[in-house]
Amino acid sequence: MTKIREDAIKAYAAEVLEQIAANGSNAFVVPESHRAGVLEGLEQAERRHFANDEEVTDLWKKCGL
């Protein structure tokens, strides 16, 4: 994994963890706007269908990274 991807994943994970910590002992609720994507990702992971390096690189380019 490239350094840019690693940094982006770490930043996203840190943001999610901060949201979870800020929520205290309450359950973390995935925002409705993210729910479909999260469920799709879980289904893909169960099927062991992951993006290849080229697909991930293209995504980062679209995001300006």
What is the structure about, briefly put?
The chain is an all-alpha fold.
Written account of the structure:
By secondary structure, the protein is mainly α. It has one domain (3-62). Helices cover 69% and strands 0% of the residues. It has helices at residues 3-22, 32-46, 53-62. The radius of gyration is 14 Å and the shape is globular. It starts with a helix and ends with a helix. The mean pLDDT is 82.
Helix content: 55-70%
Query: SSE order in H/E notation?
Result: HHH
Compute the separation of the termini in Å: 14 Å
Radius of gyration: 14 Å
Category by helix and strand content: mainly alpha
**Basic shape:** globular
Protein traits:
0% strand; single chain; 65 residues; 3 helices; mainly alpha; globular
Question: Helices and strands in order, then pairings?
Answer:
Layout: H1 3-22, H2 32-46, H3 53-62
